[in-house]
Structure prediction request, 205 residues.
Amino acid sequence: MYNLFVTRPSRSYCYAWTMHGAQHEIGECAECGRKTLVASNINEDSFLVIEGGKKLPDFLEFCGVGAYLLVSSTVVDVFTENNISGYFVEKTIPLFTDVKGQMLKVDDIQYYSLKVTGTVDFDLKAMHLKKKHICKSCGHFDWSIQRLSIVDTKFDMDTWDQSDICRISSSPGHIVCSDKVVELINQRKLTGVQIQEEKDAFRIR
Ligand SMILES: [Zn+2]
Prediction:
């Protein structure tokens, strides 16, 4: 498995962090007091506005990582042709650009939200990492090591549901993929995405 990062290398690619019409709400767990993020579902009224960058990428960066990927129609076609599993196409997301206060719809590329359904989890034993203070109510926990960037990550393949695209159950902000997806990204030169080795999930380049 590989760790897949949706990025904007050298800021040349466009990004749109805010999903308008589907704002996140911050709540607080009554049991442990930790802040909880409640993301509303992307709905019919949701749209994106380009916040920076020049070129339109195949993988568009936005802040709702984890459950969703925002990808171009090229990615949807490549994934469909090659029977990539672990996601479903939820809807098209209109993208706008602000030109001197006027909202213009971007028509060059159509973007879709993919909901990631595949799952895999870490092999915490091999990583010498433990979950501490697990909250019975919200499920939040602390890692036993504070500086996670020193930890080499490894997956427990018994927890893998065989999907090509997966979320890491213990760290749902990370999306990982199979060799097959990496080959397709390289072959078809899909842009706006970085691939990292399995051991580097906690290291951001
Ligand atoms: Zn809690």
